[in-house]
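Hi F.,

I've been meaning to write this up properly since the lab meeting, where we talked about keeping a consistent format for the predictions we share between groups. The idea is simple: the sequence comes first, exactly as it goes in, then the structure tokens exactly as they come out, then a line or two of notes. No screenshots and no reformatting. I'm using this chain as the first example so we have something concrete to point to.
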Amino acid sequence: MGIDPYLLEENSAPEGPKLDLLRYWKALKKRWWVVAITTVVVTVPWVLQVKKEQPVYEATATIRFTNYAGNSDAIVGARFQQFHSRTFYERIVSELGLVLAIEQPKNQDTPIFRKQIFSKFTSTNHPVSGSYVLRFPGDGTFVLKQILGEGGREAELRRGNIAEATLDTLAVNGFSFQLTNQPKNLPREVFFSIGNFRSTVKSLRGRVNLDMARDGTMAQVTMQDIDPFIVTQTVNSLARLVVQESEQTATGTRDEQLKILQAQLEKSKKDLDASNERLKLARQRSTSSSEVAFSEMLSRRSGLDRDLNELKTSREALRDLLGRLNAQNAAAADPGNMQQLEERWLIFRIIAGNRAFDGSTGMALTRQRLDDAEKEWNEVIRTMEIASPRARELQRKIEQLHAQIEEMTRTRMATLDREITQKGSELALLNARVNQLPSERIELSDLDRENQQFAKLYEDALSRYRMAQLDKAVKTEFIDILDPAIEPELPINSNKKAKAAAGGAFGFALGIMIVLLWEMMDRTLKTVDDVKGHLKLDVLGAIPQVAFDNVFDFQDHEKARVIDQQLVTHDFAPTPIGEAYRSLRTSLIYNKKTGRLQTLVLTSTAPGDGKSFTAANLGITLAQQKSKTLLVDTDLRRGVQHNTFGVPKEPGFSNYLCGQVISADIINETHIPNLSMISCGSLVPNPSELLGSLQMRRFLDEMRRKFDVIIFDTPPLNAATDAVVLGTQVDGVTIVVRAGKTHREVARQKLELFHNLEAKVIGVILNGTSVDLAHEGYSYYHY
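Output, unedited:
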């Protein structure tokens, strides 16, 4: 029979917990102290930290880049790397003397800023680190000393007149300074320290934030510092340095390029003039009558010679570029070295744009894919690290395109070799024919070919020189500071009250989260929905919590007497607990699913669930309805019902099952009308065998004729299987679980003991529920 399948169908619920807002609200009310303690623990240190927090100022400068020739991805990427150059930050740290850190006096609330002491402070790249003190005795002089060692020994470095120090720059120990022009406001002494130069540069690079537009036309430089003057000067200096370096680099590159091209042009002009003179003299000496045929032969040879030179030039250029790639491959390259990466990528861009691939559709498509991939890569590294997964993926894609370009280059070089061989053969045949002509013709042919070559070189040099002059005359890029940083008036963390309140709110929210997580991790049965959802059984009744103060200070027989004083149903008082038991009585008597119940087993999953107390009160409520009720204490190992009702322990039920006494000798009348009780009796070694014996069946037959309802109080399921043995002989079995204590998995495992047995589990009694009407301060009796 096992668990009634009809009950399972009628009360089926989805597996696992469902969202029960009321349950979580009750958990918050029950564990309000967790929320309070968490809020205090988080808020108090947070408020103390906020009060001690130094004011932080923020400054921002905007740089504008106007490129009239169009912004290329290479320029944008190079510009982004330029902003992160160590050299830039070293110059800023040196120019602004950022190694200086003024120590704030402990007994002064108003901070001392650098501009109150120094109007100028710079350093070299190797200042002497350490602690210093600058004293102003009040007589118009100053003394600068260095503090040596832990003992505080001072070594004088400089002494002088304050007025002179406001006009002249004084240098000592790798740093230079000039005092403020308001000497009246100087304090008596100022302690400051000079930090390590490299550490200062590293710290500055970490504190400066660069936000560059995608198209590379705008860049915002933002920094935070405790000194509003320093943060403003630093941001503006960084922006100014970027503008200066960009302009100087562009101008210097154009001037150098123009000088090289001018030298090449002068040499080409000199060679061409000399060639023209030699050709003129040769033509004057020529007396041949077949000028037309000779000119055609010379023109054809010049064309072949020009084509052959172009093919050889293309082949040598490709061979040189491939050689540079092989040299890079042979060296141990650093994947994160941007300079090596840019050099390698530049070589492949030059190869893809070589004249040898003019008219090649495959190379044109590959070159377009490479441009798109490099553009996307430059956009990614502006916002991510070069080692990020997306950047590595794009880098692998670019390397695949590079492999395709290298393969096509080797194929093209093989084609060039064949074309050079073919053109060389044609030129050799033509030269043989020319060599058969008179010596004057041969000389004129050589000079004509040479003159055409010098003319071509001169035209190319002149064209490049004019383009360079045009580039220098026309400014292709304009860089300026669109919005310089202004000194902030208020710190960004000025609203300390709001920040402290945010910490309190966070602590409060964290406390709520802890309680909710605590409740979610709780796997005990607490509510009626928990029982229906996890055990798939009806809840016959929900009994509020009952407390017995100091009940655990007593022995079992004393504990039972204490409980007896608080039998909640022995009178007819309309208490919440009494009404709960009467509701339980109604569920058992008038349950249409189970029918009439005459014999009932009460058990629990573990000690402390309140099984015996529930059995006693249920018996009382049934007797109050004029039903002749018998309560049998079948916990033959540790029965307590005899103490509860004040009846003798022996002879009892175990004595009857052993055949020592008859039934009439063990039935005791209680002080409750219509309620009789049988105690557990003497301790026996084999309770389960006795409960399944023929004597037990005789007892049931006899008691059914004498009583309307028989209740068996059995041991917990995790202590013995007595309830299972007895459950196969009665009308129904009821499981008592305790809210907030009984683990649902344990209860489910214990219920499996009734599977495949002729025992009818009719439902669950949920004991110790948190009902709002329950008496405050109650805790339940433990088995």
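Notes:
The radius of gyration is 50 Å.
The chain is about 50% helix and 15% strand.

If this format works for you, I'll send the rest the same way.

G.
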